Amino acid sequence: MTSTTSSLTPPDGAGRTGQDETATGAGIAALIAEAPVPHPTLAKTFGAMMAREFRVLRRNSISTFMRAVLQPLLFVFVFTYVMPKIGGGFMFGGAAATAGAGAGAAGAINFATILVPGLMASMLLMQGIMAVTFPLVMEFSWQRTIEDRALAPVPIDVLAGQKIVAGAVQSFLGALIVFPIVLVVHAAGQAPQVHVTNWALLALILVTASLLTSALGLLLGTVMDPRKMQMVFAAILLPATMLGCVYYPWSAMHQIRWLQMLILINPMVYMSEGLRAVLTPGVGHMPMWAILTALIGGTAIFGYLGTRTFTRRVLN
Amino acid sequence: MTDSATQARQAAGMAPREVPGAASGAGTAIRTEDLRKTYKTSRGDVPAVRGIDLNVPSGELFGLLGPNGAGKSTTIGMLTTLVLPTGGRAWVGGIDVVADPVGVKRRIGVVTQNNTLDMQLTVTENLEFRSRFFGLGPREAARRAAQLIDAFGLGDRRKAMATDLSGGQARRLLIARALVHRPEVLFLDEPTAGLDPQTRVNLWDILRVLHDQGQSILLTTHYMEEAEALCDRIAVVDHGEVLASGTVDELKEGTGADTVITVRYEGAVPDGLAAGTGLEGRPGVGKVETDHDRIRVFASEPDGVLGELVAAGARAGLTVRDAAQLKPSLETVFLNLTGREYRE
After folding, report:
1. What is the pTM of this model?
2. Between chain A and chain B, how many beta carbons pairs sit less than 8 Å apart?
3. Burial per residue of B271-288, b for 16 or more beta-carbon CB atoms within 10 angstroms, e otherwise
């Protein structure tokens, strides 16, 4: 604060704690007189909101990285390194062989191969919810900090869309982090058989799956009671993952027909199967048209519902 | 509403009924016409705002004064586009808040009652990103943030996280943030609620400087003295309605400019006691109200009134428990308009 600026003095002459604790009259007057003229556009505001997300992501990079890495790392380590070593692979070799047989594939398929797409899908879901649902619940509760962003010069549904896109980016990055882990960590002879033939299709599956989880995250974040957030883990994340073809291919489920049909309502199934189709074609998977229809349709449905509930909660 | 309140509305020049198009004329910061909001709840419809008419010219510092729950925040919510009206219309800077909320949001700065700072960001980042939301480039935004930080005396805290600010610092940052894009109209919802007296006076000074620069401001407050100290004009709001509006002086005159003498007795006031004082109809005495255990007299010439009330009580065998004489103020205006004491 310079000496040329006149400081504000309370009219009753009450003392002040110091210069640093008060505003200056001239400074404040200048805020009005010397203000830049802003020209907000939808693109600029959207871009600035994304920039804000990346700033926060960067600030929390260590915890974000831990969250994204540790769970898949431990999982792969235990199931594709520790278990084959101590059990000679009998458990999973058997399961995988069944899976392979179910899909009509030639040769034994190890568990690591099953896990590559499964864990990527599981990470997509986890990151999507962590990146969107949890911050949103905070923003809606207590001080309603959501009002900060809601007063930005864009329609409220654009704000909802921005949350979906920002969440999808994080979800996408989370899946990319898993990829090298599941490729590299395994016992000798247990290497996953990954073979990408169609990179464009892989990108399409990853992008739509990221958007799907993020849109689901938006919907959950706007309908969940903040006091019942534990429910998200127990009632959504856990069943979606356990019954989401993460640890087994869908085609292998034909032996439990009722369950195979039942889990078709789980969007996670299509994410796992979609990645399975493009990453590990040696394992049987459901038809691509069904996968893409479900991923794109699911994104549209969750996106629509999430945007609607979001707008309703922002606008009283 | 009492007769005097009706007179006050007329004397204070309540928003005249004009064609809506007139609202878009230059020189009007805020205008509302029969603005209403009814919340639908599980217990039925709860009316929060029941038809408010406002007309705030550009450059004015206008106050909505009323107790908690009067409908002030709902009104500000509708004007700032975050609450959807269920009836009537409103324009800010000539723009319809329902038809073009984005247009309104571009022109307003809002200081919310809650601390809605971005808790994931630092003080500087809060200002920079808000500037960028309003279309400034990164470099311009950084310059504007630095300017705001200096003006609001937050230099020592520029790198602090928003979560680490004191109540007064957070409030200053909220105001600074509302000014990044030089809004046409600045809204402040209870800007000094919960602040210590000194921080409060400091914020008043900030608002006065902004006002001197021609900034249009609408604030809500439940502090009588805040409204009296700051506002060019005031609308007294209670139960979702404007009871009276005008300058402080107009309000005092419009409601009789009365001193209010209240005497509270040991027990309920018997019928006829008030009449027995002979105060009613005496020159310089306005209303005489009986309210359970108390009598309230509105008088422009208060001399001797207190004595009469004490004596009348004594004749009826009632001891006086408490007596008060309020000089004409917004508090007496509120008493006069509502027949109730002001509950903050």
Report:
1. 0.81
2. 175
3. eebbeebebeebeebbbb
